[in-house]
């Protein structure tokens, strides 16, 4: 019996099951994580599509729905490594290698991303905000943050550390965004967000949480999406 040829692209989302032998020298928890990662359909799809990480599909899903990224926009990507979000942003705003309108920052070294300028430094450094704006050449239209603190295994501690990064990213966004701009950042479920949400609601016309399908079902991560920045003048009026 002759097998019909598959259509181009068929099977990209199909999970090709990989087993890690128990006698591989790995701890059982590490073996399970590696096996789950290798069998993740988004991991396999990212390799087929040429993206640096599965996280690229989170931004793709969110942008497909909310239309945040448009040609000609200036974008800042906080916590950019390994570069998946920079890849998506550069393609969607049509950023060129000669005059990039996407700037990413991470303390981790990463390979160059066509259409993006990359700063290897810690976003928490005092001079990081100034260097980002200098590299971008003006106010950003969108600030993205997929930053997360290295996990300790203690859920409460991990949540608080990542929430701190989210708060710093939000403060930066409200300082540099042009009026009408957008802010998208990773956060975790678990409370302690009330103050941050209140500040964002004063500064943006709509604020809500998003959980893209590309986020693992068991993950507590969410994305905080704040759209249509009111501008610093109106923000100051709301604070008074």
TrEMBL record:
It is found in: Cytoplasm. Keywords: Cytoplasm, Methyltransferase, rRNA processing, S-adenosyl-L-methionine, Transferase. The active site is at 186 (proton acceptor). GO terms for molecular function: rRNA (uridine-2'-O-)-methyltransferase activity. One of its GO terms (cellular component) is cytoplasm. Residues 51-229 form the Ribosomal RNA methyltransferase FtsJ domain. It comes from the Bacteria. Coiled coil: none annotated. S-adenosyl-L-methionine binds at residues 83, 85, 106, 122, 146. Belongs to the class I-like SAM-binding methyltransferase superfamily. RNA methyltransferase RlmE family. Specifically methylates the uridine in position 2552 of 23S rRNA at the 2'-O position of the ribose in the fully assembled 50S ribosomal subunit. PANTHER family: RIBOSOMAL RNA METHYLTRANSFERASE (PTHR10920), RRNA METHYLTRANSFERASE 2, MITOCHONDRIAL (PTHR10920:SF18). This is Ribosomal RNA large subunit methyltransferase E.
